[in-house]
């Protein structure tokens, strides 16, 4: 197996994540897209680790950190979604443009 | 090594199977017009990713992914969806349709860029030690030795997310309610 | 080797023995300073004095007269020369030596003559003014200004260098502005004052630049240096002589009201009459002649022969302008109704004589006429003032028959008129004769005849003025009375030199130990090199005298017998010439830059022109310049230059507005921007590397 | 008295006003008299100190810096607290302290709304620190700081106490108060210039040599400059660097076409603000040319000199013509500065000892004269509540003393010989006659002639102003008004100026005696002209 | 492998950790009226953490741990000091603000302290993981703090925008990091540097590395709010509680800069042809776009947001210029940016403190509501003027030296691009003045609203303290720039210790 076959999948996930981030109106959906992107990075890291095979398995360690952080981000994100939803009765991103210019 | 050789390796069949599943489900994550479906497709994507990890000798990471993501994060998402989706007042599309063309172009461009750079850089480099999972002990030692500091710090990230998340997400009592409760 | 060093080793260019003038020459600076002291005293205490400060002015002028007389007499007996200076600035190492600015005083034949004339005429005018201005507005200020006027003139004539000359020169200009505009409640008067100042100022550009040329060429502004260099034929000076000479001449034209700079002078009659007397006799207008005389060696040795245009050399140009002035302005005097304007044009005409003479090489002749003219012109102006004082009008059409009511004024006026007309043996005859002799000797035959014609015209218009004023019947209002003695006494005092001044320079005649005028003036650092007749050339004198007598005769025939002025006027109203003269040769209009006016139908053109005549040249040119100012200010400055700033500000503002619009408030727009930015950067850098 | 001569005196002159301003902050607003007295006392002490310095100054060696001190300041960049005076800066320093005293005296009973003497005087004292500091600074960074320090106080002076009327600005929809527009414009213009000036300073700094040799020290840099270290031949951006400096100084002067802030700022500023702006602040720019731009970048200065000369004469003519179009007396006076500073810059552009001397005496004279004119304009506005010349006619009748002083000052301003204004103009023309060898003589002579013609226009607009303001019958609207002629505070502030105008007019050595050796030394070192044997002949 | 821990070197972090845990614990037990005590604990804790910092500074440096992935050198100490001081100021500022609005105090302080802890880690982090984790710890609490005014829709929105864009930037950053790891096989900066320096143009690896570097820089660019990664800043600044905004504009921004410094100078110094132009563009855009947009602002906080974007642009200038001049100029660029950062932190915090006082009084952050402040409360207006004009860079206030250093480093770098950037910066300095002056104009030149009365009561003691410190330091530093220079000089060790 080539490294690249994983990297391409990662690139695809990452790009899809961007797509989702840009088109989704619901905040939760946006968060899902972000998870895709973070996951793509994990694929990269693990694939590289499998290629490099460093003594400390740095890639895998890194990906564990990323997973952890991603979980934390989701927690924060959902907290914010709840906060907003309670005040606005909406989780649609484009409803929020009180501040501009 | 040409494509036929590549195809001759059985592991690549597995790869193709899992990979296409990951891609399809990821695609559905961002295109599905049903929020719950979208979240479930994320589960599929992540599960597929975990499969890929297994292929890449990252057993431990694969299970972490399954546990943390599928076990916790996606549940969290579903909660979020339930809370925010249920009382939707207006019937609006899930996507901002006007944004689609630009977003599609951008993400396609990004994909081309990312894959081009990667393909150019790594060519036909092969992953090693397929089927030789990294011993979890190594990971454990690394995490508590060389990476003990980030490990500790990441705990504070989680703690902060927890404490802050709760504070932010909880509903504040109105002064009246507060008084009531104080009286009790 | 620089020029100063040369000067230091060479012997001074003295050809005649000159005395040092003694203590009076050393202290002559007092004369220059005293009027300014008087000025300050008048401003400080004048209001509280009995004569509102005239005392200080008169006192200062009296002291000056005493000092000037002592010097004058010494110079009569033995030529004296003294120069003193105080350094007021020094610019180190300028082109190898220091460039020095000095204030000082020079006591030599030329300046002594001027000191005395200024002091004498000045004193007479000051005393007269006490009577004339009695009860008028701002008498204190008037005398302060008069002192300033006289003081500036003294600074000018006492100057040993060009810079101080400029100081005095402009001081005279400012004082004249103050005095002409004395009655500034009326706009015409202040406009006339501005016109005088600005016309002079335009000419002063020539003086200043000329001074710079000379000063920097020689490395020194001193006249003595200039004279020496001119006599030596210094090569550096010779190279700039033509241009510098022309520039100085332009300056002189302004002050001395030579055509076409004469335009300011008639308007300057807006000031009180004593001012006119002082201005036309002793100060201001003589300054130009004085400058020509002071720098005479330059013209005589270097500049005169520099070609200006084709075969016309600088000297020819100057003589020609003098000639135009002396004849043309005389004609204008012929048609003026305002008695002061008659005298004013007369002055311009006489200045033309002086300029012609000096330019032609008649250093002494020109100055001699300046000398005699000062007395009788002051006398005439003061006489006119006396008449005006009596009839409360400047116009001769309001006068007539005054000889019985104002005998002292009448007789002194007659003396002045005869002197001006050049009737033997009064002062004017001798000086005019000398000018004619000079023109003849220097070979300016045509100009000679112009001068003769001018003499005729002079006699003619003075006869007209006398006839219209003192003969015939009184046409004004009220009953005119003779002026008080404080006014008539100066008339009488001035009448004396008007009669006798000419005797001091009769060629070939010497009065005991008193040297003649030629020798007085010759007391300079270098010889002037002008021609002096050995004896009276009677043929020339006869021509001049005949012209004068003819003028009187014809004038009397026209104006004397028939006192009805209107009729008289009609007789001389030659078609074409008369309107031309009435409109002062349209010079004002020319100055307006409106030459094209003649192209249209004449009537309309004249009408159109007349509308612009009212405020005269300064307001006319002023209007053009101010229009230019408006264009510059409104069009270019406010719209263009300032517009760039305002435009930049507005553009920033607009850019800010549109950039702020990028901040739509939509999260996904932000994300799009984010991604687009990142992608562009990556692609650009990947491609670039 | 060692400390006194080793920088102590100058430091006191510079920082005493600042200290007083700080002290003033703790005095309660209500104790107005105490505040005023403190300000006056400090300004008088500063002035006295500057006089002591002037008298103790060795005129014999005016080319070298005296009362000098150099102490380490910003060690990282080798910038020092280096101050000192030479013959060039001495007259300007004295002028600066002198005008401050007069301004404070004048302020005694002239307060613009919203009054607040405490703030006003404090700003004035801070301003003084900036002004004095600029004239003594011998380090580029220090110079820059002081140069900029004047901005804030002046900004506030204009903005708070300035003209309250409204103005329509092209390109903007709403009318805005004149003072706001003017204050911001002043600030932006100057900052724009000085930002580039700073870049120029830095470029010079880095060009000065290796890390150890880099310096901001003006005398050292001047030595290097004379040796050709910054010549465009060896340093491709040398000309650009001069351009950057030029931008900074020319805005301040202001030279055409960077002048447009000036009429607005002057017109809108409160009287004392206009006075200080005209009398001192403008000089900072021209002083910068003499102190920094020319000695450090002599070769580039040569290249730029014709351009500067052309801009100067444009300024002279343009300023005068613009004056003719004015209806507002104060604005007219403001525009006149453009013309007068044109002469100063013409002098500087000749790069000769005469021209630069002319510039300095021109600066001093302009400071005295235009300062006085602004005092007068302010006082008249105070009484008539208008600056429209068409309404002011007959001022001479209503207030004879005021009219007389105005007449005198106008005469001085038009460059009447015998008064201070003459020397700057005349010597600038002298300088333009024979510019530095190598410069285009005919260009400069043309400039000379145009400049001389400019004097006529100058006379024109000033006389015209006098005619409109002073002469004629008073307007109907003033019938029944009682006008107080010049009061004693005004007299106290103005008479010294008038006396000095006359004294310098009659005895310019008062200024030139101090400057000449210093200028000659500067020109000699920078342009290596030295004494030339032959006199330049016409056309040569 | 020896992964010994030098506890002294970690002491500042440990003290902060103890403090934040203490705060959290105390918050549980304290009754509501005593909750403010948590703030006091936080302040004291931060003060205490400065002690080991000083001990370290005088001790033997540098200390290197975990294979050199965590280094305590002078650079780290200076920046840690900066984080502690600005954190300290923000905490002090927060006391009255948080108190007055019934916010959750204990949690608030806990989160602020967490963020500070993250910054401290970043300053010493010398590998990708550590710096990533540090960055996350710095940022994550701020996502929540931005929404701390829970009932305020603007605050909600601020949190949301900050969060989503923050996560996006994290993802991009991570992609870059992962690629760097793949390309070099290491996460350690020194090793990455060694691997990367052998790359030549045309190497198939090059585009990937370029992409990775840009992506990482995008992540840091987001933190420092450089254009075009600034979009969140105006909205988030405006909506967040003002002390949080102050911290965002100072502490968090500084953390972004630290990340940039360390990454650029230690991990990919040889790729200056990549990050140099990148930073150049970000600098030029940040200055120009933000300054122009700021001209239009009517809300003071939003104005300060744009201002801080523009200031970030100014800070990037020497950085960009240094990259163009090669190795020698890097130190000068670093020093200039650090000096700028230090000065900026002080004056910007001062400005925010003034805003807090004014907002507490008028209840509005619109510039118009400041009209006539000069007459109503002269002292506050003077302080505000000091800070705003210092931000504008008017001597003798400290801001001038920041700009001066910036120009110095830029000109020192030399070359056309540096000069162009300097010119752009110069023009922008002028534009910036226009809007800073707008605030001064409102305070001093506009008339106070009808019926407004002179304000005599002083703001709360903690704010007075902050204002006084910031103002005094702003003026003193402006007159004696040796002080920030001292710190700037010290940071040069970053280049000396690792790789050189």
Describe this protein's structure.
The complex is a heteropentamer of chains A (101), B (184), C (689), D (540) and E (500). Chain A is an all-alpha fold and 101 residues long. Chain A has helices spanning 3-23, 27-52, 58-88. In chain A, 77% of the residues lie in helices and 0% in strands. Chain A starts with a helix and ends in a 13-residue tail after the last helix. The mean pLDDT of chain A is 90. By secondary structure, chain C is mainly alpha-helical. Chain C has 29 helices and four strands. In chain C, helix 4 runs parallel beside helix 6 (139-157). The N and C termini of chain C lie far apart (69 Å). In chain E, strand 1 (63-65) and strand 2 (70-72) form a beta hairpin. The two termini of chain E are 25 Å apart. Chains in contact: A-B, A-C, A-E, B-C, B-E, C-D, C-E, D-E.
Question: Can you describe this structure in just a few lines?
Answer:
The complex is a heteropentamer of chains A (101), B (184), C (689), D (540) and E (500). Chain A is mostly helical and 101 residues long.
Q: Which helices and strands appear, and what pairs or packs with what?
A:
The complex is a heteropentamer of chains A (101), B (184), C (689), D (540) and E (500).
Chain C: H1 3-9, H2 22-26, H3 29-45, H4 54-77, E1 82-94, E2 97-107, H5 109-132, H6 139-157, H7 162-180, H8 187-218, H9 223-232, H10 235-255, H11 264-267, H12 273-281, H13 285-294, H14 296-303, E3 307-309, E4 312-313, H15 314-335, H16 339-360, H17 363-391, H18 407-421, H19 427-442, H20 445-470, H21 485-500, H22 517-521, H23 538-560, H24 565-572, H25 577-582, H26 587-591, H27 602-613, H28 616-662, H29 667-688
Antiparallel strand pairs in C: 1-2, 3-4
Helix pairs in contact in C: 3-4, 3-6, 4-5, 4-6, 5-6, 5-12, 5-17, 5-21, 6-7, 7-8, 8-10, 8-28, 9-14, 10-13, 10-14, 12-17, 13-16, 13-17, 15-16, 15-20, 16-17, 16-19, 16-20, 17-18, 17-19, 17-21, 18-20, 18-21, 19-20, 19-23, 20-23
Chain D: H1 2-26, H2 32-56, E1 66-74, E2 79-85, H3 89-107, H4 117-136, H5 140-149, H6 151-161, E3 166-168, E4 175-177, H7 178-207, H8 218-226, H9 238-252, H10 261-268, H11 271-296, H12 298-324, H13 329-349, H14 353-384, H15 389-392, H16 395-398, H17 400-413, H18 420-433, H19 441-469, H20 488-506, H21 509-527
Antiparallel strand pairs in D: 1-2, 3-4
Helix pairs in contact in D: 1-2, 1-4, 2-3, 2-4, 3-4, 3-11, 3-14, 3-20, 4-5, 4-6, 4-11, 5-7, 6-7, 7-9, 7-10, 8-11, 9-11, 9-12, 10-11, 10-13, 11-12, 11-13, 11-14, 12-13, 12-19, 13-14, 13-18, 13-19, 14-17, 14-18, 14-20, 14-21, 17-19, 18-19, 18-20
Chain E: H1 11-29, H2 36-58, E1 63-65, E2 70-72, H3 74-100, H4 105-124, H5 128-146, H6 153-184, H7 189-197, H8 206-224, H9 232-239, H10 242-267, H11 272-295, H12 300-325, H13 327-362, H14 373-376, H15 378-392, H16 399-413, H17 416-445, H18 461-479, H19 482-491, H20 493-497
Antiparallel strand pairs in E: 1-2
Helix pairs in contact in E: 1-2, 1-4, 2-3, 2-4, 3-4, 3-10, 3-13, 3-18, 3-19, 4-5, 4-10, 5-6, 5-10, 6-7, 6-8, 6-9, 7-10, 8-10, 8-11, 9-10, 9-12, 10-12, 10-13, 11-12, 11-17, 12-13, 12-16, 12-17, 13-15, 13-16, 13-18, 13-19, 15-17, 15-18, 16-17
């Amino acid at each position: 197996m080539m490294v690249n076959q994983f990297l391409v999948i990662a690139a695809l996930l990452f790009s899809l994540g961007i797509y989702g981030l840009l088109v989704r109106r619901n905040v939760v959906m946006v968060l899902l897209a972000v998870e895709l992107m973070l996951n793509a990075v994990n694929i990269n890291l693990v694939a590289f680790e499998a290629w490099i095979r460093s003594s400390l398995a740095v890639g895998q360690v890194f990906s564990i950190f990323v997973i952890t952080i991603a979980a934390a981000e989701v927690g924060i994100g959902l907290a914010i979604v709840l906060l907003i939803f309670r005040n606005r009765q909406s989780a649609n991103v484009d409803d929020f443009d009180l501040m501009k210019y | 090594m040409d494509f036929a050789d590549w195809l001759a390796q059985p592991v690549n069949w597995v790869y193709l199977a899992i990979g296409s599943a990951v891609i399809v489900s990821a695609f559905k994550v961002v295109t599905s017009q049903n929020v719950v479906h979208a979240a479930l497709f994320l589960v599929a994507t992540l599960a597929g990713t975990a499969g890929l990890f297994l292929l890449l000798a990252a057993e431990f990471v694969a299970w972490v992914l399954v546990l943390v993501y599928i076990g916790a994060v996606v549940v969290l998402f579903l909660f979020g969806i339930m809370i925010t989706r249920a009382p939707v007042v207006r019937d609006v599309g899930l996507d901002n349709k006007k944004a689609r063309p630009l977003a599609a172009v951008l993400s396609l461009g990004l994909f081309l860029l990312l894959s081009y750079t990667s393909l150019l850089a790594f060519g036909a480099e092969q992953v090693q030690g397929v089927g030789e999972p990294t011993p979890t002990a190594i990971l454990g030692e690394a995490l508590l030795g060389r990476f003990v500091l980030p490990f500790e710090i990441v705990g504070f990230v989680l703690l902060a997310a927890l404490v802050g998340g709760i504070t932010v997400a909880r509903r504040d009592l109105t002064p009246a309610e507060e008084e009531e409760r104080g009286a009790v | 080797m620089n020029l100063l060093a040369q000067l230091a080793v060479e012997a001074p260019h003295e050809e005649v023995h000159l005395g040092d003038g003694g203590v009076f020459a050393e202290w002559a600076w007092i004369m220059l300073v005293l009027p300014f002291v008087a000025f300050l005293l008048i401003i400080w205490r004048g209001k509280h004095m009995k004569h509102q400060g005239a005392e200080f002015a008169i006192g200062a002028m009296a002291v000056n007269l005493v000092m000037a007389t002592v010097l004058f007499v010494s110079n009569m007996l033995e030529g004296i020369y003294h120069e003193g200076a105080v350094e007021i600035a020094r610019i180190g190492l300028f082109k190898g030596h220091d460039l020095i600015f000095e204030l000082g005083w020079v006591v030599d034949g030329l300046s002594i003559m001027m000191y005395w004339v200024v002091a004498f005429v000045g004193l007479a005018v000051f005393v007269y003014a006490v009577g004339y201005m009695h009860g008028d507005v701002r008498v204190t200020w008037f005398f302060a200004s008069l002192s300033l006027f006289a003081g500036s003139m003294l600074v000018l004539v006492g100057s040993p260098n060009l810079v101080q000359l400029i100081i005095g020169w402009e001081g005279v200009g400012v004082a004249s502005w103050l005095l002409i505009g004395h009655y500034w409640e009326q706009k015409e008067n202040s406009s006339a004052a501005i016109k005088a100042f600005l016309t002079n100022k335009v000419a002063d550009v020539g003086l200043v630049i000329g001074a710079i040329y000379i000063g920097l060429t020689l490395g020194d502004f001193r006249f003595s240096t200039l004279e020496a260099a001119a006599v030596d034929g210094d090569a550096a000076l010779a190279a700039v002589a033509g241009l510098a000479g022309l520039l100085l001449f332009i300056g002189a034209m302004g002050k001395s009201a030579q055509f076409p700079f004469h335009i300011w002078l008639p308007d300057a009659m807006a000031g009180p009459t004593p001012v006119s007397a002082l201005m036309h006799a002793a100060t201001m207008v003589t300054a130009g002649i004085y400058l020509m005389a002071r720098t005479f060696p330059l013209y005589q040795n270097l500049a005169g022969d520099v070609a200006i245009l084709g075969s016309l050399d600088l000297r020819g140009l100057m003589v020609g302008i003098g000639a135009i002035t002396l004849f043309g302005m005389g004609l204008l005097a012929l048609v003026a109704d305002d008695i002061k304007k008659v005298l004013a044009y007369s002055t311009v005409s006489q200045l033309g004589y002086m300029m012609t003479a000096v330019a032609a090489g008649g250093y002494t002749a020109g100055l001699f006429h300046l000398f005699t003219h000062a007395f009788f012109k002051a006398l005439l102006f003061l006489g006119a003032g006396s008449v005006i004082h009596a009839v409360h009008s400047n116009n001769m059409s309001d006068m007539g028959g005054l000889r019985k009511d104002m005998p002292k004024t009448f007789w002194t006026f007659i003396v002045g008129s005869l002197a001006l007309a050049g009737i033997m043996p009064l002062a004017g005859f001798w000086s005019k004769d000398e000018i004619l002799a000079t023109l003849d000797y220097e070979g300016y035959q045509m100009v000679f005849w112009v001068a003769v014609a001018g003499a005729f015209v002079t006699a003619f218009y003075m006869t007209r003025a006398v006839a219209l004023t003192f003969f015939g019947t009184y046409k004004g209002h009220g009953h005119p009375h003779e002026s008080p003695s404080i006014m008539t006494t100066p008339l009488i005092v001035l009448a004396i030199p008007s009669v006798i001044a000419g005797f001091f320079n009769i060629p070939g005649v010497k009065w005991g130990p008193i040297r003649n005028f030629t020798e007085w003036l010759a007391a300079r650092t270098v010889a002037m090199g002008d021609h002096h007749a050995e004896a009276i050339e009677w043929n020339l004198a006869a021509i001049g005298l005949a012209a004068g007598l003819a003028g009187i005769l014809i004038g009397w025939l026209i104006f004397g017998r028939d006192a009805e002025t209107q009729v008289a006027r009609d007789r001389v109203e030659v078609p074409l010439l008369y309107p031309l003269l009435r409109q002062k040769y349209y010079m004002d209009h020319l100055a307006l830059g409106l030459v094209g006016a003649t192209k249209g139908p004449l009537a309309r053109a004249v009408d159109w022109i007349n509308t612009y005549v009212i405020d005269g040249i300064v307001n006319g040119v002023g209007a053009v310049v101010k229009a230019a100012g408006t264009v510059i200010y409104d069009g270019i400055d406010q719209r263009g230059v300032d517009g760039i700033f305002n435009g930049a500000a507005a553009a920033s503002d607009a850019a800010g507005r549109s950039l702020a619009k990028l901040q739509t408030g939509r999260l996904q727009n932000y994300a799009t921007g984010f991604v687009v930015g990142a992608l562009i950067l990556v692609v650009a850098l990947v491609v670039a590397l | 008295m060692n400390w006194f001569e080793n920088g102590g005196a100058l430091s006191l002159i510079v920082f005493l006003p600042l200290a007083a301003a700080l002290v003033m902050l703790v005095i309660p607003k209500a104790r107005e008299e105490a505040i005023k007295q403190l300000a006056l006392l400090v300004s008088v002490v500063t002035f006295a100190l500057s006089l002591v310095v002037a008298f103790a100054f060795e005129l014999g060696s005016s080319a070298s810096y005296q009362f000098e001190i150099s102490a380490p300041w910003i060690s990282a960049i080798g910038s020092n607290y280096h101050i000192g005076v030479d013959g060039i800066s001495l007259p300007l320093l004295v002028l600066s302290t002198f005008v401050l005293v007069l301004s404070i005296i004048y302020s005694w009973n002239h307060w613009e709304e919203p009054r607040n003497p405490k703030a006003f005087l404090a700003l004035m004292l801070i301003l003084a620190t900036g002004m004095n500091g600029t004239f003594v600074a011998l380090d580029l960074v220090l110079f820059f700081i002081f140069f900029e320090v004047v901005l804030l106080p002046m900004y506030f002076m204009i903005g708070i106490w300035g003209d309250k009327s409204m103005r329509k600005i092209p390109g903007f929809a709403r009318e805005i108060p004149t003072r706001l527009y003017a204050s911001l414009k002043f600030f932006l213009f100057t900052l724009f210039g000085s930002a580039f000036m700073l870049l120029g300073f830095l470029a010079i700094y880095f060009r000065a040599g290796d890390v150890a040799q880099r310096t901001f020290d003006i005398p050292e840099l001047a030595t290097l400059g004379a040796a050709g270290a910054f010549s465009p031949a060896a340093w491709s951006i040398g000309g650009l660097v001069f351009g950057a400096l030029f931008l900074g100084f020319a805005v301040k002067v202001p030279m055409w076409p960077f002048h447009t802030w000036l009429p607005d700022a002057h017109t809108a500023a409160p009287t004392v603000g206009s006075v200080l702006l005209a009398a001192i602040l403008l000089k900072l720019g021209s002083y910068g040319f003499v102190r920094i731009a020319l000695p450090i970048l002599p070769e580039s200065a040569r290249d730029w000199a014709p351009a500067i000369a052309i801009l100067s004469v444009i300024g002279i003519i343009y300023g005068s013509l613009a004056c003719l179009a004015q209806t507002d007396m104060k604005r007219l006076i403001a525009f006149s500065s453009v013309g007068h500073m044109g002469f100063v810059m013409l002098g500087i552009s000749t790069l000769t000892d005469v021209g630069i001397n002319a510039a300095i005496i021109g600066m001093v004279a302009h400071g005295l004269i235009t300062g006085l004119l602004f005092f007068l304009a302010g006082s008249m506005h105070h009484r008539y509540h208008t600056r429209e010349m068409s309404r002011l006619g007959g001022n001479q009748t209503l207030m004879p003393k005021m009219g007389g002083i105005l007449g005198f000052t106008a005469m001085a301003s038009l460059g009447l010989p015998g008064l201070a204004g003459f020397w700057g103009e005349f010597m600038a023309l002298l300088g333009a006659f024979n510019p530095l060898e190598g410069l285009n003589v005919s260009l400069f002579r043309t400039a000379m002639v145009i400049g001389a013609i400019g004097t006529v226009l100058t006379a024109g607009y000033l006389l015209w102003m006098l005619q409109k303001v002073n002469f004629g019958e008073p307007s109907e609207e003033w019938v029944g008004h009682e006008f107080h002629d010049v009061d004693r505070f005004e007299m106290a502030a103005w008479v010294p100026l008038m006396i000095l105008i006359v004294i310098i007019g009659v005895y310019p050595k008062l200024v030139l005696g101090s400057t000449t050796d210093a200028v000659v030394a500067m020109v000699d070192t920078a342009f290596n002209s030295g004494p030339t044997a032959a006199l330049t002949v016409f056309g040569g | 492998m020896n992964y010994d821990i030098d506890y002294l070197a970690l002491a500042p972090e440990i003290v902060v950790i103890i403090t934040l845990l203490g705060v959290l614990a105390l918050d549980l037990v304290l009754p509501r009226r005593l909750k403010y005590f948590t703030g006091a604990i936080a302040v004291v804790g931060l003060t205490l953490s400065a002690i080991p910092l000083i001990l370290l500074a005088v001790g033997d440096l540098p200390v290197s741990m975990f294979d050199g992935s965590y280094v305590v050198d002078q650079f780290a100490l200076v920046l840690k000091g900066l984080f502690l001081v600005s954190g300290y100021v923000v905490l002090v500022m927060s006391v009255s603000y948080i108190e007055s609005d019934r916010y959750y105090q204990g949690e608030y302080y806990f989160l602020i302290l967490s963020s500070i802890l993250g910054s401290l880690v970043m300053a010493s982090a010398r590998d990708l993981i550590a710096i990533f984790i540090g960055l996350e710890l710095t940022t994550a609490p701020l996502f929540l703090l931005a929404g701390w005014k829970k009932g305020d829709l603007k605050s909600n929105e601020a949190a949301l925008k900050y969060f989503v864009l923050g996560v996006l930037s994290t993802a991009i950053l991570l992609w870059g990091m992962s690629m760097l790891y793949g390309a070099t096989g290491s996460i350690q900066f020194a090793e990455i540097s060694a691997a990367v320096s052998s790359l030549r143009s045309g190497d198939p690896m090059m585009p990937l590395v370029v992409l990775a570097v840009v992506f990482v820089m995008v992540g840091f660019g987001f933190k420092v709010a450089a254009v075009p990664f600034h979009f969140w800043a105006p909205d988030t600044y405006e909506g967040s509680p003002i002390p949080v905004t102050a911290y965002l504009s100072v502490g968090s921004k500084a953390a972004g800069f630290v990340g940039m410094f360390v990454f650029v100078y230690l991990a990919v110094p040889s790729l200056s042809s990549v990050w140099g132009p990148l930073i150049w563009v970000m600098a030029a855009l940040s200055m120009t776009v933000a300054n122009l947009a700021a001209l239009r602002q009517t809300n003071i906080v939003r104005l300060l947001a744009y201002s801080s974007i523009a200031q970030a642009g100014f800070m990037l200038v020497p950085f960009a210029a240094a990259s163009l001049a090669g190795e020698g100029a890097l130190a000068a660029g670093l020093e200039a940016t650090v000096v700028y950062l230090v000065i900026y932190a002080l004056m910007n915090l001062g400005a925010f403190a003034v805003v807090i006082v004014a907002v507490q009084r008028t209840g509005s952050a619109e510039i118009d509501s400041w009209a006539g402040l000069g007459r109503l409360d002269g002292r506050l207006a003077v302080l505000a003027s000091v800070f705003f004009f210092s931000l504008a860079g008017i001597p003798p206030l400290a801001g001038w030296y920041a700009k001066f250093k910036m120009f110095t480093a830029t000109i020192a770098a030399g070359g056309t691009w540096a000069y162009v950037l300097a010119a752009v910066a110069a023009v922008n300095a002028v534009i910036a003045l226009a809007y800073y002056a707008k605030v001064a104009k409102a305070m001093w030149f506009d008339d106070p609203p009808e019926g407004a009365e002179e304000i005599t009561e002083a703001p709360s003691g903690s704010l007075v303290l902050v204002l006084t410190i910031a103002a005094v330091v702003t003026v003193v530093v402006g007159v004696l720039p040796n002080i920030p220079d001292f710190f700037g000089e010290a940071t040069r060790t970053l280049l000396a210790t690792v790789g050189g």
